[in-house]
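Service request form, structural biology core

Requester: graduate student, group of Dr. S.
Request type: structure prediction, single chain
Budget code: on file
Notes: please return the result as structure tokens.

Sequence provided:
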Amino acid sequence: MKRIGKYAVIVLLACVTSFSTGCLYLKNHPLGMESCAKDLEGDHYEVLGAAEGTSSSFTLLWVLPVTTRASYDDAINEAIRSQGADNLIDVTMWREKKVYAIGTVDVLHVKGKAIRYTAERK
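Core staff response, request fulfilled:
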């Protein structure tokens, strides 16, 4: 009987440990689409390729902010910097929320086409 109790305690501890470290809930939520991330400075540009940026935040016990909030501007700037670009066009945005036993991670994703402005051709 004692042996069964030891195994039960081990199994219980294993379940509690995996429950507290694993993701309990995951949700992706589309935020929208924009023709460009920032106002276009001109009509002449070259497309450099696909770019993606993220910004995230963590809230301890679902109410105590540990990091700053996820920022649209930070995600846009990361995507632009990743390609050495000036702006993004055809932008899509979505938010991902992961809930853990110890808190929540909120991630803002931005994806688009990176562009670089060129001199006007006459």
